[in-house]
Write a structure and sequence with these properties.
With 172 residues, the protein is α/β, with parallel strands linked by helices. The chain is built from seven helices and seven strands. It has a five-stranded parallel β-sheet, sandwiched between helices. Helix 6 links the parallel strand 4 and strand 5. The longest helix is centred in the first third of the chain and has 16 residues. The protein is globular, with a radius of gyration of 17 Å.
Amino acid sequence: LHVLAGLAGDLAQRSQQLAVDAWGYDIGEKAELVVAAIAGDPDIQSWENFSRALHTAQQLCIPGGTIVLCTGLDQPPGPALRKLSHSEDKEQLLQRIGNDRSIDAISAWLLVDARDVCHVYLLSQLDESIVESLGIGFVDSPAHINRLSEHCKSCILLTDAHRAAAVAGESL
């Protein structure tokens, strides 16, 4: 959207404000269900964008609520994500991935954190056993998301969730 030049500190501040202006919005109140979509070509469907979408969705979901990430993700999880298990507690998992320097370490860290406060589901191109090995629920179709929504009083649909800078009940 913009081309900037100058000192790093000045650029960081200005670019952050430009990003908020372009992608930021205040949703109002948090919801019981947040459906966060990552649209785009296969190169957009990455674990890095998964973690960005998950982070934004978690900011909009009430504790104990449900997050559904709708992706075309077909890449198998990396080393840090493969360390996850739904049977270990949060502290044990964070210790296991704490020193991991693999490309998906941030994704693993964010997923452990989100699972601690929300129910997380994934619609993707991945096999059900792979998704469930991450300690998250497998969604096989939009109809499954519909069934999840029937049990919720409030819902937020978030498109381009990997780019969004959405908050609930705060000023940007």
